[in-house]
From TrEMBL:
The gene is frr. The lineage of its organism: Bacteria, Pseudomonadati, Pseudomonadota, Alphaproteobacteria, Rhodobacterales. Belongs to the RRF family. Keywords: Cytoplasm, Protein biosynthesis. One of its GO terms (molecular function) is ribosomal large subunit binding. Gene3D superfamilies: 3.30.1360.40, Ribosome-recycling factor. GO terms for biological process: cytoplasmic translational termination. One of its GO terms (cellular component) is cytosol. Residues 23-185 form the Ribosome recycling factor domain. Responsible for the release of ribosomes from messenger RNA at the termination of protein biosynthesis. May increase the efficiency of translation by recycling ribosomes from one round of translation to another. PANTHER family: MITOCHONDRIAL RIBOSOME RECYCLING FACTOR PSEUDO 1, RIBOSOME RECYCLING FACTOR. The keyword Cytoplasm applies. This is Ribosome-recycling factor. It is found in: Cytoplasm. Pfam families: RRF.
Amino acid sequence: MTEEFELDTGDLERRMEGAMANLRTEFASLRTGRASSSMLEPVMVDAYGSPTPINQVGTVNVPEPRMVTVNVWDKSLVGKVEKAIRESGLGINPQTNGTIIMLPIPELNEERRRELGKVAGQYAEHARVSIRNVRKDGMDQIKKAKADGMSEDDQKFWETEVQELTDRMVAAVDNALETKQSEIMQV
């Protein structure tokens, strides 16, 4: 028999927390009726031949509660930034004034709130899939150790540990989704 198998549950948990952090970032990008510079974080601009985050091609500001502005540093990128915002699915119609792109944030109507709720659900499902992929990786490590001579009791113990961690993280995703959807639907 081989030496005692020790699964690095800390590594699995860290990777699952990474999926949660990514989900929080995506949720921050969903607007809830007020302007926020974080809503532009997922927008990528095709600048100089590669996808670039919008905050690396201009300064993002929130001068008033219903307005976001992007002051583009390179005049030749203004059209590309405007196009990236228009195609981002944020539902915002950019207005250009020289190198400054203004993004007026309209009131959310009921239909748009439902759409944003669905988008939040898609983000949550991506996070759940990521967490399940980490779970699968952990289970594969356990199966390999079982093939190398781990006892059945140890196998059951580690599988239970990984499953409990997965269940806890999926519950956290579900709670975050519920909170975000109620925030979106709040008038």
